[in-house]
Design goal:
2 copies of one chain form a homodimer. By secondary structure, the first copy, chain A, is an alpha/beta fold. Chain A contains 14 helices and 16 strands. In chain A, 40% of the residues lie in helices and 19% in strands.
């Protein structure tokens, strides 16, 4: 089934939860899928060949960060990010919109020009138009390209949400034109509308009218309650095309992912497994463990007996506790790798349960497990 | 030849340079050998299973650091450091003496009591007697145990050096008694005497009289000129027993190692490859490269085309330059691993050249190569 054309196949459904496959020219992605985040051309603290061993089939790169550093010229020299960072499987890039809002020192939205901002590194003024965002993602040689959107930080002010939809829709059209015809790559639209059902539906309808290879739910997981996020997904995912992948951006905890799969979402990305790894927090089948805690000081059991990548199953919690206290880099390396491995094992279990029609049991068992 | 008894075999000699094998119950060590430093139970920034892939046959642990953290109780729970850190090959431990001088906030030497110091972590007062140093190294389950010595920071004051010899000799005797009979482990003596030929010979004679499984040259590489260090080695290594390994502590650059092998030294340890790795400095067959330098920004060649561990040969200097600038942990991970691999390749070439009788050519080619 692997050819150069991007496509999505829905293999099974268990109530709303979907089992599928995304085909790209760089490999197949089993969905529901989790994408580790490689913001600056590296999934923090993990060797590229070790990422492969976790079962990861696609990673995410951040257009905003890569534009600032190493910059487009260097990425062009390498024919894109895959060769530069030595990752030959698929890469999805965000459009830069979200990071402009959250990281840059000064930013302004102009419907015609695009997002105007100052680099958080050197204060240099940059204008990111919808067209430029697509051009940069092409230089990155991204397999799944995201449209430039305006992503408001709050989820209920109708005026702000409505304006964000207008701008995002206008930019989405321009992105599609700039993207052009390219069957081997995909362009995803990003719906806005916060938690407002009416506005979210308006945004979905407008994007479907333009027509994309996949649809993301944007402007969620920005501080709202988990139950509110699940609610808006429950009310609106059915309106998305069944034959296209659905991506919930920036999500989340294993429980967030489980609840969103339950509402029909196929793709996720989040810094949580690696960021937690750097602070000594491990996601395991025993729950979420804070390995800094002195109760692990003499615990000679590993995080996961069954782990078969590298020799992770041989490192005890006691040793990890020691490494964290001694401020040793190896703590971040081991726990980040473990967490990515755990997330991918978690996704595998989700897919197995959808396939067997037992997803609801798995959902009930783990929906509150990691809180 | 592998049995539980510690022994050393001298296989070949090229002028003063020696090719040998150390046999331990945990594996063979080809000499001249380089021991990566695992101060706190981890070779900084490197997975234990990756250390193996570099060709490393023995690592060094620091008694002072391990005594303070994780502490003897936890090491005892694991039956020693090997299981705790998941490294099954040989470990050499220093005695703690050098770190007490260089790291602890307050220290005093008492001929009878030992080294009295305050922990650099919590200020707690600790007395490290020669007997206690050996007991701790036994708890670590070290394969090569070092005697507690007094290591002065300077290399020419006769009075200070002479006193250090007296104390160190007295302590060495007590260490030997405490070590007792244990054929499967080794106890090494440490000669003092700085750059003073007469005193160095006095120290060597006294230690040989006590009798050890190997002899270290202590109190060198503490700031003196490289040529002075080579000179004192030249004048004294011939006095050490031919059938015992000789260890130059805390050395050094590839050039330091080469010059010391030329004077008949068999073993080395140094933090240089990992510490340099964390600051973007790589040791390569092209020389010492500062990868922070912007001249590498567009250099798409790897550090070592021939490197066959992990996929290190696929990462370009341009990518490493980017990772360093972006303050990404992966830079330290990649360059530290590369440097340890390079050091072990360098030792391999030294051994091959001694074996072929071409050591002098290799020496001439590289003695000034890394300056």
């Amino acid at each position: 089934m692997l050819d150069s054309k991007f496509s999505f196949e829905l293999l099974a459904q268990d109530e709303k939860a979907r089992l599928g496959k995304i085909y790209t020219s760089r490999g197949v992605i089993d969905t529901p899928a989790f994408m580790p985040v490689g913001t600056q051309g590296t999934v923090k603290g993990i060797f590229t060949d070790d990422i492969l061993k976790t079962g990861t089939q696609i990673i995410l790169g951040n257009t905003y960060h890569l534009l600032l550093r190493p910059g487009i010229e260097i990425l062009n020299n390498f024919g894109g990010l895959h060769s530069f960072m030595n990752w030959q499987k698929p890469i999805l890039t965000d459009s830069g919109g979200y990071q402009i809002m959250s990281l840059s020192k000064f930013n302004k939205i102009d419907l015609n020009l695009g997002a105007i901002f100052k680099s958080h590194l050197d204060g240099k003024k940059i204008i990111l138009s919808p067209e430029k965002s697509i051009q940069i993602q092409k230089a990155i040689n991204s397999d799944i390209v995201m449209v430039l959107d305006e992503c408001p930080k709050q989820t209920s002010n109708k005026k702000i949400l409505s304006e964000a939809i207008n701008i995002s829709t206008h930019w989405a059209k321009r992105c599609k034109i700039e993207f052009g015809n390219n069957n081997s790559k995909a362009l995803f639209g990003i719906t806005q509308g916060g938690l407002d059902k009416e506005l979210r539906i308006e945004s979905i309808d407008k994007l479907i009218e333009i027509g994309f290879d996949g649809y993301a739910m944007g402007g969620l997981a920005v501080g709202e309650k988990q139950s509110d996020m699940f609610q808006i997904l429950n009310e609106t995912t059915d309106l998305l095309p069944k034959n296209k992948p659905r991506y919930l951006m920036g999500v989340g905890t294993p429980s967030d992912i489980l609840g969103a799969v339950n509402e029909g979402i196929d793709m996720f990305d989040c810094v949580m497994p690696t960021r937690s790894g750097r602070t000594g927090l491990a996601f395991t089948w025993e729950g979420k463990l804070n390995l800094k805690n002195s109760k692990y000081q003499k615990d000679n059991t590993p995080l996961d007996n069954k782990c078969r990548i590298k020799d992770l199953n041989k490192y005890s919690k006691s040793y990890l506790n020691h490494l964290i206290k001694a401020d040793e880099m190896l703590a971040s390396m081991l726990i980040s790798l473990h967490n990515i491995y755990f997330y991918q094992q978690f996704m595998l279990k989700i897919r197995e349960n959808i396939n067997r029609g037992t997803f609801k049991n798995f959902y009930k068992k783990y929906i509150n497990f990691f809180n």
